[in-house]
Amino acid sequence: MVNTEFIEALASKAPTPGGGGASAYVGALASALASMVGNLTVGKKKYADVEERVQAELLELEATRLRLLELIDADAEAFAPLAAAYGLPRGTEEETAAQRAALQVALVDACEVPLEIMRQCVQVIESCVFLGRHGSVLAVSDAGAGAVLAKAALLAASLNVRINIGSMDDEARAAAYREQMEDLIAAGSALADDVYADVVERLG
C-alpha cells in the first residue's frame, strides 16, 4: 500500500525532489489526515449540525491536496533554471552579468513556489482548526497530527524562501517575499499550536 517512489527519489543524490517538494508532500499528507477526520464525521447524526460545513471542508481539502501534489513538480521545475543559472560561466564581465541576470529571473519562481506551498499549508491548518473542534471525537488526535504536519511543512517551505531572497538584487521584491513568508508563518504556526494544545488537553 505504501508507495516509496517519492521517498526513494528524495533520498537519492538527485537535486530534486528536495526540501520544497518534501514540504509539499508533507502538506498533502496533512491534508489527507484532515480529510480522514471529515470523512469519519459526515453522515453521523451526532454531527448533523456541522454536516454542511464538514462537506465544504472536505471539498477544499481535496483541492488543496491536489494543489500540493502539483507543487512537488512545480518546485522541481523552478529549481532547474536556478541550478542552470548558478552553473553559467563567469569568466568575463559579460558572462558574469549574464549569469547574474539569469539568476535574478530564476529566483522569482524559486520563491513563488514555496510561498504557494506555505499558503496551501495554512489552508490545511485552518481546516484542522474546525475539524479538531467539531469533527468526530474518535479522530481528534488525527486533526492534531494534521495540524502539526502542516506546520512542519509550512516552516520547511519557508527555508526555501529565505535562502532565495538572500540572493535577490531587487530589495523591494525580496522584502515583499520576506513579509509574505513571515505573515504566513505567524498565522499558520499560531493556529497549529492552538490545535495541538487543544487536542492534548482533550486527550488528557
Which percent range fits the helix content? over 70%
Q: Class in CATH?
A: Mainly Alpha
**CATH-level-4 superfamily name:** Formiminotetrahydrofolate cyclodeaminase monomer, up-and-down helical bundle
Largest sheet: none
Q: What is the CATH fold-level name? A: Four Helix Bundle (Hemerythrin (Met), subunit A)
Spans of 5+ residues with little confidence (pLDDT < 50)? Answer: none
Whole-Å distance between the termini? Answer: 33 Å
Which architecture name does CATH use? Up-down Bundle
GO molecular function: catalytic activity
Protein name: Cyclodeaminase/cyclohydrolase domain-containing protein
Organism: Adlercreutzia caecimuris B7
Describe the structure.
This protein has 204 residues and is mainly alpha-helical. It has one domain (16-203): Formiminotetrahydrofolate cyclodeaminase monomer, up-and-down helical bundle (Four Helix Bundle (Hemerythrin (Met), subunit A)), CATH 1.20.120.680. Helix content is 82%, strand content 0%. The chain is built from six helices and no strands. It is elongated and about 75 Å long. The two termini are 33 Å apart. The mean pLDDT is 96. One of its GO terms (molecular function) is catalytic activity.
Question: Which secondary structure elements does this structure contain, and how are they paired or packed?
Answer:
Elements lengths: L4 H7 L7 H23 L9 H36 L6 H42 L5 H26 L5 H33 L1
Helix pairs in contact: 2-3, 2-4, 2-5, 3-4, 4-5, 4-6, 5-6
Protein name: Cyclodeaminase/cyclohydrolase domain-containing protein
GO molecular function: catalytic activity
Pfam families: FTCD_C
